[in-house]
């Protein structure tokens, strides 16, 4: 669910030099930061005592590329304290994910060949699961460390359409309330599935997109608001008669960015199902990770080059929403022309007026533990 | 590694009606027969007693389609006796396998929609592993039932070339000895990896291609010898000057069909590493499964239709061997033309003279258990 890293390098590289490295550097930076909390979380576990397999899950892992260095740290940390203990890493994502890329990457058949493949670590077992994190993925009480980055903002279903915007951040209060309700129910579902999976004393380290204490969120950190740009360019197509009103209204991201208070809510209510399931919030913080494309632009100053690198990245994860909003009766050629016009207008705007465009990441990082004896 | 089943139906169906169903019916029939031994093997296990997850592996599972009905029987049998016990099925294959098809198939997103998806079974967890069965795939002592069908005839490496044939069945005694030695070492490697994985009392049910007590093997059960046909048509291309001598010699299947005695050998020697690892041979038998294409032909009598259905099936699993033997300097167009000519000649021969052509399966079925206390 998060951006695929090294495994897709060949395909992605075709879109232009630099795309690959910039595309993954931000996602990897977030995970590397969260890695400190993973190591800290391991510090409080009785790794040496148990004879069971030390079981790790990476939820929404894509090809596993961006979390690979963090996983190496995790494995090294466990191994130093419990040299004889088997370790299992279960990488999860939706069934259509490229699990072959994941297996090849972890076996050193793709990507960085300089380091020994993580799959060659003795007594380490790498598995994949094509099961959504809205369901239980491993058996009761077997999970020791659950990890997820930049995946759980995707809702289990779209609770409605956002008529005059594309994301809940720009929705009317009524629309936003629907999305918030779905997001809070989904958060419960995610946490209760993890509560069943976790062994007593097991922990989750989750880095999720959020709306932070200052109201910042992905692509909205002081400069131009990325989602407002999406909405404006989509609206322009409607005004120009290129798309219908239904198509205009239909473009709605199935996402919600919770605030830190919303992430914390189920833990603060002792009567909540999550609290009763034994989950405790050990840590919560927010972090902003600078857009690598804007950083590149600050170095090279070439607005057209920035626009050519930046907008196709936005397109890579947003295109299905806009293409999917178009009427099913349109020909493939029409659909492609409309979507090209949409991103073309965005790119032209960035090239003409690059200042303030940036897709900074804004994450809420939580560490959650399951109480022993629950 | 075995033929993909339902998940590939859409792609395969494009090659001609009937291809899909005939292609999988034989593979599935073998597995359904082995399913009786799986249920019998479960009968001797103390399923009720344990609190651990009941762990199943399907080694070389491809998309899981051909073993799906057998897995349903297995799950039902375990559940009847141990309703509360978690079950984990780990489907394994090489990393390039289409694991997305496997996950979609088991979740009911592909293939037969009439039965509830196996992944919807409560307290059942489906995982994938892109790790070769020449390596350990799950942690020590955690496997309860290992299954494999039509996969372990693939050697871990090719010990040499077969100069005047394409498969070890037609090799010189010296060449054959090299392949046999590799196959026996590989069998040890496979069994020792499984011995580590198996819990005490756990069992393996394996249905492998073999050369049976009467000397029969895949495509050699009394009529035309399929591998001799491959060799002859490949030799014809050399004689006609279409391929070089090096290309002629280079076409060699990385396979070996062991005899029942060879399958049994490590168990009969109490000093073998396999015996010392606690593995015991509970059952060994051979079985022939009739070629569905030849059966179709016996019904419809249309030789050209038989040839059009039969030879592309052979091509689907053999083409890489012949294409791979061609000189790297040849153009893609040249390579395609040679391979087309090769299968075209085979197809023309079957159409002209269909009697005796059949790819009957010949399997050796073994049930192996790990002694308690080892």
From TrEMBL, chains A, B:
One of its GO terms (molecular function) is methyltransferase activity. The keyword Cytoplasm does not apply. Keywords: Magnesium, Metal-binding, Methyltransferase, Transferase. The keyword Magnesium applies. It comes from the Bacteria. Gene3D superfamilies: Methyltransferase, alpha-helical capping domain, Vaccinia Virus protein VP39. One of its GO terms (biological process) is methylation. PANTHER family: S-ADENOSYL-L-METHIONINE:CARBOXYL METHYLTRANSFERASE FAMILY PROTEIN. This is SAM-dependent methyltransferase. It comes from Phreatobacter cathodiphilus.
């Amino acid at each position: 669910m998060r951006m695929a890293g090294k495994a897709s390098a060949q395909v992605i590289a075709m879109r232009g030099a630099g795309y690959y490295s910039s595309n993954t550097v931000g996602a990897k930076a977030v995970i590397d930061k969260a890695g400190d909390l993973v190591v800290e979380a391991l510090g409080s576990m009785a790794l040496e005592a148990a004879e069971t397999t030390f079981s790790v899950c990476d939820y929404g892992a894509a090809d596993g590329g961006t979390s690979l260095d963090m996983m190496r740290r995790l494995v090294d940390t466990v191994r130093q304290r419990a040299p004889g203990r088997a370790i299992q890493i279960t990488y999860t994502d939706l069934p259509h994910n490229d699990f072959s890329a994941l297996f090849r990457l972890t076996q050193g058949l793709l990507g960085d060949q300089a380091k020994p493949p993580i799959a060659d670590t003795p007594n380490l077992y790498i598995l994949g699961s094509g099961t959504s994190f809205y369901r239980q993925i491993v058996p009761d009480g077997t999970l020791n460390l659950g990890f997820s980055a930049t995946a759980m903002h995707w809702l289990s279903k779209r609770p409605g359409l956002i008529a005059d915007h594309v994301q809940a951040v720009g929705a009317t209060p009524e629309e936003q309330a629907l999305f918030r309700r779905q997001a809070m129910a989904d958060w419960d579902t995610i946490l209760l599935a993890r509560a069943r999976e976790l062994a007593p004393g097991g922990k989750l380290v989750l880095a999720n997109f959020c709306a932070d204490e200052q109201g910042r969120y992905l692509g909205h950190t002081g400069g131009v608001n990325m989602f407002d740009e999406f909405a404006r360019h989509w609206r322009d197509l409607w005004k120009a008669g290129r798309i219908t009103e239904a198509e205009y209204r239909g473009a709605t991201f199935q996402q919600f960015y919770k605030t830190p208070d919303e992430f914390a809510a189920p833990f603060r209510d002792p009567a909540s199902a999550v609290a009763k399931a034994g989950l405790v919030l050990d840590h919560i913080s927010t972090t902003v990770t600078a857009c690598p494309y804007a950083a590149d632009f600050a170095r090279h100053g070439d607005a057209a080059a920035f626009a050519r690198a930046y907008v196709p990245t936005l397109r890579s994860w947003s295109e299905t929403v806009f293409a999917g909003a178009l009427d099913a009766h349109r020909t493939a050629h029409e659909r492609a022309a409309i979507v090209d016009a949409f991103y073309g207008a965005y790119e032209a705007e960035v090239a003409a007026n690059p200042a303030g465009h940036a897709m900074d990441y804004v994450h809420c990082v939580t560490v959650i533990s399951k109480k022993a004896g629950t």
